[in-house]
Amino acid sequence: RPPRSTLFPYTTLFRSLNDCTSTLADGTACTPTCNTGYTLSGTRSCTAGALTDTVVCNPDPCDASGAISNGAAGSGCTSTLAHGSSCTPTCNSGYTLSGIRSCSAGTLTDTSVCNGNSCDASGAVANGALNDCTSTLAHGASCTPTCNTGYTLSGSRSCSSGTLTDTAVCNPDPCDASGAITDGAVNDCTSTLSHGATCTPTCNG
User: Fold this and answer.
1) Distances (CA, A) of 54 to 37, 43, 162
2) Residue 54, C-beta contacts closer than 8 angstroms, at least 6 positions apart
3) Which terminal residue of the chain, N or C, has fewer Cβ atoms less than 10 Å from its own Cβ?
């Protein structure tokens, strides 16, 4: 009889030889069982002392078709991704992929992530300065410019998946023109005289 290593190849992939013994009877067949992540094809049969062995433990494919946040599985990531293969999902506009999906004996390893792109928030601010607004403002972050003396900020700059929303404006401050005038009245001179505006007090008759 041939040694066991010849009769029973691939034993490292078998969970159990099942009914396959070293004394398989003439005219009978047996079927080993495979390790988790492998599927059996073929049988072993004995004819007049000769073993016919078509048994193979084939590694299982993986289901790589699951959704990815802010993207899609893509054409390569299917429900039957082959053992030893990898695929890359696709990301929506404004997102960049990092990582991959790979299959090993029915086990999917998924490191794929669609990361939101940063924004260029370094554009000039009229009558102000950038402060913490940089050319790489992170997705989901915001920044606040500063204004020159005599100006007050309204709004901010924020980044969402590579798109900058900029509502930051340095508005000129009003003036207090309501001070008393000798021998006259302030007329239309108020405590909130707008930038660029003028007013004219009136004098007593």
Assistant:
1) 19, 5, 56
2) 41, 42, 43, 44
3) C
**Which of the 8 DSSP states describes residue 12?**
G
C-alpha–C-alpha distance, residues 134 and 144, integer Å? 10
Instruction: Pull the structure tokens for residue 144.
Output: 């606040």
Q: Which two tokens stand for residue 197?
A: 């505006």
Quickly count: other Cβ atoms within 10 Å of residue 93's Cβ: 9
| pLDDT tens, position by position, 111-165 | 999 999 999 999 999 999 999 999 999 999 999 999 999 999 999 999 999 999 9
Cβ(201)–Cβ(189) under 8 Å?
Answer: yes
Write out pLDDT tens, residues 179-196: 999 989 999 999 999 999
**28, 20 Cβ separation under 8 angstroms:** no
The Cα-based distances of 121 to 116, 145, 163, 195 in angstroms read 15, 10, 10, 28
- How many alpha carbons fall within 13 Å on the CB side of residue 194? 3
pLDDT digits (tens, 9 = 90+) for 15-45: 678 888 889 999 999 999 999 999 999 999 9
Provide mean pLDDT across the span 166-182: 95
**Cα(76)–Cα(115) distance, rounded to whole angstroms?**
20
